[in-house]
Sequence to fold (190 residues):
Amino acid sequence: MTKSIELSNVTKNYLEEYKRILHKMMQGMTYVTITCSISENFIKQILPHQIAAIKMSENVLQYTTNIPVQNLALATVKTSTEMVENLEALQNRCCVVQNSEYELYEYMCTYKEITEVMFQAMCAPPVSNSINVNYLRAMIIHHQGGVRLAQNVLRFCICQELIPILRCMIQEMCEQIEAMEKLLDGLQDC
Fold:
């Protein structure tokens, strides 16, 4: 039987805000009016994901004194803000690329599988009194889900302007995942 950890008030405050951000992200990614455009659907679905990355990073920045965690959180805010701006700029142009019902069905089936795994893992991460560890664990799961979502949409006929943004998103998230995993290993060894 595992002994539960008594959490500090600071950790409780951090986790309370994390849960609020996560809940908002899950609602935003789930309750989207689906159209015949995979490009448009993806943009509407991924925007809450990117906004959550910004909010979760801003949340940890209120509490952490760990400089590498601060740097990673600031990098996440910067890249996710740029991603949101790029996606919003494309939204009205990408909706003209339409897909078949079969493609839409295939896209949505995989989308639901990815988001269910990501939501479940982010709702029940191991919790510690280290806000840095909690943040890194959650953001690794978040970014892994984002990579899979971007890879899923690239399987279909989509707006050509969206493709370089998706490739950039995948590359940036993979680089951040690698940096977060290294930092997490170091923090857990302490």
Q: What stands out?
A: The CA atoms of residues 58 and 79 lie 13 Å apart. The chain has a mean pLDDT of 94. The helical segments are 9-30, 38-61, 67-94, 101-123, 131-153, 162-189. The chain has one domain: 9-189.
